[in-house]
Amino acid sequence: MGRKWNNIKEKKASKDANTSRIYAKFGKEIYVAAKQGEPDPESNRALKVVLERAKTYSVPKAIIDRAIEKAKGGSEEIYDELRYEGFGPNGSMIIVDALTNNVNRTAPEVRAAFNKNGGNMGVSGSVAYMFDATAVIGVEGNSADEVLEMMMEADVDVRDIIEEGDNQVIVYAEPDQFHAVQEAFKKAGITDFTVAELTMLAQNEISIPEDAQAQFEKLIDALEDLDDVQQVYHNVDLGE
């Protein structure tokens, strides 16, 4: 399952020197989560997940507060959550999650990004069945055995615990165990996470020829650069 999560996160963040695009996407996601329930993370689990993710990306408090205050202020801005599925070079599979206030704009933009970069959109369900919704939570400074003991003491079921890199341990669990895993860490005195994601993991990663990797990465970049796109998942091992 090794996905080198910090490398992936840092690659995304480095695409914009000011990370303004990432911050804007988080602002939208925080607003939507706060609108769907109470604007309080202690009583709104969806909001709490987003805020934990935002923390690992160092999203400024001002942006978080602005999005929550916008939700509290009764803004009538409505966003639809959409999922697109498609294929990239060499049979690669891609899932695109979007938040949009204009459905008629988003679908053509996603389709164009696929078509212009060697891919094509598929129908709903054509790709997602090859991915598993997964909670991914990472910490530094502990061994996999120590983390396993923390999870066992808290009676938390997880899928896997893997040491990744020199000093990082990643816990993979069912999405509904996201908070339970975090609470197990917090009971052990760990409150900082290198990764805190609800993601879609490919059941099987594939390798593609080196000459196709540049085109594939160009396609992923084009999708991630769309304002309405929040997350892009794929099944390609790029050796990051």
Automatic annotation (TrEMBL):
UniProt keyword Transcription, yes or no: yes
Organism: Brevibacillus fluminis
Protein known as: Probable transcriptional regulatory protein EDM56_07030
Domain TACO1/YebC-like second and third: 79-236
GO biological process: regulation of DNA-templated transcription
Gene3D superfamilies: 1.10.10.200, 3.30.70.980
SUPFAM superfamilies named in the record: YebC-like (SSF75625)
Domain TACO1/YebC-like N-terminal, residue spans: 3-74
Lineage: Bacteria, Bacillati, Bacillota, Bacilli, Bacillales
Keywords in alphabetical order: Cytoplasm, DNA-binding, Transcription, Transcription regulation
UniProt subcellular location: Cytoplasm
